[in-house]
Amino acid sequence: MAKQRVLSGIQPSGKLTLGNYIGAMKNFVALQHEHDCFFMVVDLHAITVPQEPAALREQSEAVAALFVAAGLDPAQASIFMQSHVPAHAELGWLLTTMTYMGELERMTQFKDKSEGKDAVGAGLFVYPSLMAADILLYNSNLVPVGDDQKQHLELTRDLAGRFNYRYGETFVIPEPFIPKVGARIMSLDDGTKKMSKSSPNVGSFIALLDSPDEIRKKISRAKTDLGREIIYDVQNKPEVSNLMTIFAQCSGQTLEQVQTTYDGQGYGAFKKDLAEVVVQALEPLQNKYADIRSSGEIHHILREGAERASTVAEITLREVKEAMGFLPRAH
Ligand code: AQP
């Protein structure tokens, strides 16, 4: 049986967080051996909110290097920049013309990201169509994402079905792949909001490249509650439950084990141990990251990845344009 195709991406819209790692990258690494994988740095998505050019360039290279530092093997998975494969922008436009305003208006991520802002770019609104293009270009079977992306994936499935119905079988309908444990890591200052790399409060997230001291400081200041028990109860103790999830994910323990170990102990002792668990979990990744950045090998990895990705993407784009009735360019 042919290997299933997997595609996912991360935006270079800030410093990658522990949320991106636990919710996305750890799963990417686990999938690469059994599937035909494409992982990209989605820079075209990042510009749906304003980005400073020098920061965008640096963050893009940093995300790609973190992919490799986290364990992605360029020999197993294609690692590339979205903007290096022009077919993404082109199919994105074609699918935008087939997406209904009402569908986009229902997207909760758009509502969250546009809330309270005066000038909201149209790109932020139509971005789910570009995400659909990313996935459909590769005929991806599985899309590993955090549960916050589930709604966008549903739209991708609807668009693929709509296209196939109008123009004939062209796209594979992708399935979401949402891990059950640790799928969503919440902010350190509000256990009901997800941890986000673009949050203006740097204390709300742990960046993968934070120094040990920064990690200790952020965890010691993380919000808890007026109680003192280490109990997993998302409804009533969202912040403590989130810290327990981080502990479990970084140590390999179950939530029950964490709860038993800290039974009867206060938040202070738990937070102190949690900081050390996170520091230790990130140390190998941080060391590998430093090696990759200093070697400059990431540029070579990205060039090869873009070549492999383009080969697949261009075939799909040609089929789509033919199906839609575009006049082929003569050779
Ligand atoms: N807090 C999180 N917990 C679990 N998974 C998360 N992901 C993001 N935050 C968490 C997963 O990481 C992948 C890449 O996300 P993205 O960079 O494309 O965009 P995002 O989901 O909008 O991530 P951020 O960090 O919140 O970025 P900004 O602040 O720029 O919007 C996705 O698979 C996502 O589920």
From TrEMBL:
Keyword Oxidoreductase: no
Catalytic activity: tRNA(Trp) + L-tryptophan + ATP = L-tryptophyl-tRNA(Trp) + AMP + diphosphate + H(+)
Keywords: Aminoacyl-tRNA synthetase, ATP-binding, Cytoplasm, Ligase, Nucleotide-binding, Protein biosynthesis
Residues that, per the record, bind ATP: 11-13, 19-20, 146-148, 185, 194-198
Short sequence motif 'KMSKS' region: positions: 194-198
Source superkingdom: Bacteria
GO MF term (any one): tryptophan-tRNA ligase activity
Keyword ATP-binding: yes
Main subcellular localisation: cytoplasm
Localization per Swiss-Prot or TrEMBL: Cytoplasm
Record-listed E.C. numbers: 6.1.1.2
Subunit structure: Homodimer.
NCBIfam families, per database record: trpS
Function in brief: Catalyzes the attachment of tryptophan to tRNA(Trp).
Family of this protein: Belongs to the class-I aminoacyl-tRNA synthetase family.
Name of the featured protein: Tryptophan--tRNA ligase
Species this protein is from: Cohnella silvisoli
